[in-house]
Design goal:
Strand content: 5-15%
CATH architecture of the largest domain: 3-Layer(aba) Sandwich
Order of helices and strands: EHEHHHEEHHEHEHEHEHHHH
Number of strands: 8
Shape: globular
CATH class of the largest domain: Alpha Beta
Helix content: 40-55%
CATH topology of the largest domain: Rossmann fold
Structural class: alpha/beta
Oligomer: single chain
């Protein structure tokens, strides 16, 4: 096995498409498969960090790693899950774009930081912020593989094309070794609209579409509310099973073969010479109550509301043109009056 770990980046510049959920559950499943995994949370919202048991702001994490204050071994902390360590996100990452941008060759900051990865680590999973700023550029520059989650919906499809184009630009200019990119359908449903959009994406991207689809599942929302990975909270749910299949695919096709068991540290054991770190407690959450049921014909009411939007838009356009014509007439009349009555 190569000494350098594989860097798997989960990115899309559109939010709300399951990026963090994918990062967390992929990291947990790969660790369950026996991989030594580090999850790096580059998002200032730190949702990936809380999802694996971080209950308070991290004193040392991704921000300190990017600033060069600590190496990866000291920036990471244990999680409640064997083989998985976390480089936590924090509010300070909101300032990282500005601070990194003034450094020499700012696009290589994360890649240089990951050179300090301990030799026993197999894979680093990076959860990117939902924007193509300097942090996401750094992740793409360091990446060996990029997974782009996308919801098969019109607006999300537009975001997918932009994200793909940006990743290709990074590959062209900074990371020629990036040859593994996969599109992951998330929040899928059995509907004609989603099927048409899915077929259009497959027609455009072909083999880049991963053979796994994550269905829409309310258990994802419940697991996020309890700050637990879905595959731990409800392992038999449809979405959890999909993430298990995703991890199997990534393990088989995107990562290096695993080293023999005798050559690897025992699961959950700290590196030689270091004391075992106390696991952070899992944040307790109150039981969730079911929300109100939608009223009758709610989907029809939604369609009627959507249908009104073009009419409202046309009405606003006509009113705007009318006001502009009135103002133009007033200005022309005023100019003509001055010319008629005040010219000597």
């Amino acid at each position: 096995m190569s000494a350098r770990p594989r860097i798997v980046v989960v990115f899309n510049q559109k939010g709300g498409i399951g990026k963090t959920t994918t990062s967390v559950n992929l990291a947990v499943c790969l660790a369950e498969l026996g991989r030594k995994v580090i999850l790096v949370d580059l998002d200032a919202q730190s949702n990936a960090s809380t999802s694996v048991g971080l209950t308070s702001p991290a004193a040392t994490g991704a921000y300190q790693l990017l600033r060069g204050e600590v190496d990866l071994a000291h920036a990471s902390r244990a999680t409640p899950y064997p083989n998985l360590r976390l480089v936590a996100g924090s509010d300070d990452l909101s300032w990282a774009d500005v601070e990194i941008a003034v450094k020499p060759e700012p696009q290589y900051v994360l890649e240089r930081a990951l050179e300090t990865t301990p030799a026993d680590v197999d894979v680093v999973v990076v959860d990117c912020p939902p924007a193509f700023g300097i942090l996401s550029v750094n992740a793409a520059v360091a990446a060996d593989a990029v997974i782009l989650p996308v919801v098969p919906a019109p607006l999300a499809l537009d975001g997918l094309h932009k994200a793909w184009w940006n990743i290709q630009r990074v590959r062209t200019h900074f990371n020629r070794e990036l040859d593994t990119m996969g599109i992951l359908f998330t929040m899928t449903e059995d509907s004609d609209v989603m099927h048409r959009i899915t077929d259009a994406v497959i027609a455009s991207f072909g083999g880049r579409v991963l053979p796994v689809r994550v269905p829409r599942d309310m258990k994802v929302v419940e697991s996020a509310a309890r700050d637990l990975p879905l595959v731990i909270f409800e392992p038999e749910s449809p979405a959890a099973r999909a993430y298990v299949h995703l991890a199997d695919f990534v393990d088989a096709h995107m990562l290096e073969p695993r080293a023999p068991a005798a050559a690897r540290p025992a699961a959950g054991m700290p590196p030689e010479g270091e004391e075992e770190e106390e696991l952070p407690p899992v944040r307790p959450s109150p039981p969730l109550e079911p929300g109100p049921q939608p009223g009758p014909n709610w989907d029809q009411q939604l369609d009627e509301t959507v249908d009104l939007l073009p009419e409202i838009s046309n009405l606003r356009w006509k009113v705007g043109v009318g006001i502009m014509m009135i103002l133009l007439g007033f200005c022309l009349g005023y100019a003509f009056g001055r010319w008629m009555y005040f010219v000597p």
